[in-house]
Amino acid sequence: MTSVAQPRPSPRFVCRSYMAVALAPEPPLVEWIAEIEQKIKDTGNFLVGPPVVLDLSAVKLSKSAIAHLVAQLEQRGVRVMGVENVDASQLDAALPPLLRSTKKESVEIGAAAPKARETQREKPQPREARSAPATLLLDKPVRSGQSIYFPDGDVTVLGSVGSGAELVAGGSIHVYGTLRGRAMAGSNGNTRARIFCSKIEAELLAIDGHYLTADLMDKALRDRPVQAWLEGSALKISALD
Amino acid sequence: MAKVVVVTSGKGGVGKTTSTAALGAALAQFGQNVVVVDFDVGLRNLDLVMGAERRVVYDLINVTQGIAKLPQALIRDKRLERLALLPASQTRDKDALTEDGVARVINSLKQMFDWVICDSPAGIERGATLAMRFADTAIVVTNPEVSSVRDSDRIIGILDAKTVKAERGERVDKHLLISRYDPARAARGEMLSIEDVLDILSTPLLGIIPESEEVLRASNLGSPVTFNNPSSAPARAYLDAARRLMGEEVEMTIPTEKQGFFGKLFGRRAA
């Protein structure tokens, strides 16, 4: 009548990598925080919600200054999950953990390449330009009120984007359908990002924060396939047909 | 196993309650056992359109709270024996609805009927999301007009997010019902065309219901339009839509009012 107790398998430890937005504060900090606040107001919620890592290589902060910075960001809804490029002594148990970035791995997301590959180069790469861009592919229309946020690369939609919907991409945006909502490309400062669509009826286009609303777009382009790109700080649109 | 259908729209006043009653009556006329459920707590209308407002004793809230049993609250239609109504409360509001209560009621109704048609309130908050939560199929009612179309697009997005089916990774079957369509106004460009609406919403079309005075007449008489005057244009359109809902292939036409001889002579109204 005794039941044999099965030995519990020992807990599994797995190493996983996740994508996070990296923010690198620059002095003076007060201005940088104000800019972040403005960015949140301008481009919606893309900094609020996803995990954020603070790269403190450009600033020299004491433990209490780091704590203050993290608190300031939390107040604005930005959740800091890790800190990098500081000495371990500057952090304590109350602050987010220290992250050590490993060799940069290039990851291709999407139907084509399911395996993650490691880059051959040892040189550290600039944080915003990834060597193999990732793409988010949506094969259904994006409905009004839906918000798609993909800072890691391009967003491609096989269908239309409804009025009142928004797409925010770190890379370029490609809509194989009618773009009726808002499209904001190059959200991480990628000034080379572009926006393409089969038919333009967009409410707003933006690249790296420089935006154009519908009433300022050339009426002659309406209902045509167009591409938009940045020239300096001016957003340019031209027809593709 | 019964099919749970939600009739929703986002926008108010487009014809959800009218369509729920008309389609419910049409399915009952074709021999199906149907219950129509009013989810518009506090602003109930389905009982008026069904002509049952003087027979309401218990309602959906009473049942979800356990104050009344489901058979006590169900009102059998006097004209169509296979049609029943579960009315909403008029004195409470949507906050009185609980997800568990609604789940239990829907499950009980599924054992008793072939079709459970939920008349959603307007909006995208609790009342609307609870009405759609347990649906297998959705009928999105849209007027061919820009505000209604955008709101319908929003509700379609919500159907793919806030239903139990969507959370399980399955899809709610969605159908578009274009109501209050006026071909003359569409031709003049005062109204969106059917093609425009389908292009924006990318959802299969269940039917096109023409604008008609019959709808108000039927509603004032407390009779679903398919029952009150089955040969009228909106009734014929609803009957076709009900057939398509049951899986029949019916050619898509926009019925027009049949004009008699005098109608043709004196057809144009004086300005």
Describe this protein's structure.
The complex is a heterodimer of chains A (241) and B (271). Chain A is mainly beta and 241 residues long. Chain A is built from 2 helices and 17 strands. The longest helix of chain A is centred in the first third of the chain and has 15 residues, at 29-43. Chain A is 12% helix and 31% strand. Chain B has 14 helices and 8 strands. Chain B has helices spanning 16-29, 46-49, 60-64, 70-73, 99-112, 126-133, 146-159, 164-167, 183-187, 194-201, 214-221, 225-228, 233-245, 261-265; strands spanning 3-8, 34-38, 75-76, 83-86, 115-119, 137-142, 173-181, 205-210. In chain B, helix 1 (16-29) packs across helix 13. Chain B is globular, with a radius of gyration of 18 Å. The model of chain B has no long low-confidence stretch (mean pLDDT 93). Classes of the chains: A mainly beta (241), B alpha/beta (271). At the A-B interface, loops of A face helix 7 of B.
Spatial strand arrangement across the major sheet of chain B: 3-4-2-5-1-6-7-8
Biggest interface in this structure?
A-B, 14 and 12 residues
- Bulk shape of chain A: globular
Please give the alpha-carbon distance between the first and last residues of chain B: 54 Å
Q: If helices are DSSP runs of H or I spanning 4 or more residues, what is the number of helices of chain B?
A: 14
Order of adjacent strands in the largest pleated sheet of chain A: 7-9-11-13-16-17
Q: What proportion of the residues of chain A form beta strands (DSSP E)?
A: 25-35%
Q: What oligomeric arrangement do these chains adopt? A: heterodimer
- Written as H for each helix and E for each strand, in order along the chain, the element string of chain B is EHEHHHEEHEHEHHEHHEHHHH
Structural class of chain B: alpha/beta
Uncertain spans of chain A, ≥5 residues at pLDDT below 50? 103-126
